[in-house]
Amino acid sequence: MIYVNEIDPYCAAWLQNLMDADVLPRGHIDTRSIEDVTPNDLAGYAQCHFFAGLGGWIHALDLAGWPRDRPVWTLSPPCQPFSAAGKGAGFADERDLWPAGQHLIAQRKPPVVFVEQVAPAIKHGWLDRTVSDLEGLCYACWAAVLQASGAGAWHKRDRVWIVADAEWDKQPRQEPCRWPAGRMGRFQQSVPRDTAWPDALARLRALDDGLPRCVAATDAARNAIVPQVAAAFVASYLEGEGFTAIEAAA
Q1: Per-residue DSSP letters for the chain?
Q2: How would residue 128 be classed by pLDDT, with cut points 50, 70 and 90?
Q3: N or C terminus of the chain with fewer C-beta within 10 Å?
Q4: Residues 83-122: pLDDT tens digits?
């Protein structure tokens, strides 16, 4: 069982449908604000996903070959404080919810944390603050700005990706992650990444429960991460683990 936090009821219903269809691993979906979640609420969960949206991070971990029983946390905090979708208020915007996530990380100390945010947040100091917060909790951090077009999509969708590892200097590490037949993970894609956007959205809607909420569906898809990009970032981290093990054994 995984823990999934998503405040939007439409996305939460979508996540439940994907779990029921065994597209995503089954778990507990918590629709409270992350600010209302306590560290004790997360006890017993190896994997926790905050601001889960449509489950993009969960699917990306599968694509990259991350074991479903291996501990990991993922967070994609709201972008509105830093993007064109908001007023550019930055840290002064009440929707800047990273501090709530940082508090839970500090209390539970998961071994690996992945974080994603829109690239324009960098100019607001978001990357510096987030990495500083994580390093202050004794995590080793790596970050990269990657575009969806780098994974074959027809749009840029710049995002900054962070991985924080609390145990990077401990051995042994697992073998490098490899992608059989040039394909990431073990699932065929329900929506190929080179699908034209209107067609892709129509097919994505087919995964939900059929409620006539086109605006909600469009917003959910527009705000979602591209799992293939996240998977490439996760796989690079796994590759790094393997190379560390090889170097340590040499």
Answers
A1: -EEEE---HHHHHHHHHHHHTTSS--EEEE-S-GGG--GGGGTT-SEEEES-TTTHHHHHHHHHT--TTS-EEEE----TTTSTTS---GGGSTT--HHHHHHHHHHH--SEEEEEEEGGGGGGTHHHHHHHHHHHTT-EEEEEEE-GGGGT-SS---EEEEEEES-TT-S--PPPP--GGG--SS---SS-TTS-HHHHHHHHHTTS---S-HHHHHHHHHHS--HHHHHHHHHHHHHHHHHHHHHHH-
A2: very high
A3: C
A4: 776 677 788 888 899 999 999 999 999 999 999 999 989 9
- The CATH number covering residue 169 comes to 3.40.50.150
Range of the domain at 224: 2-249
Indicate the pTM of the whole model. 0.79
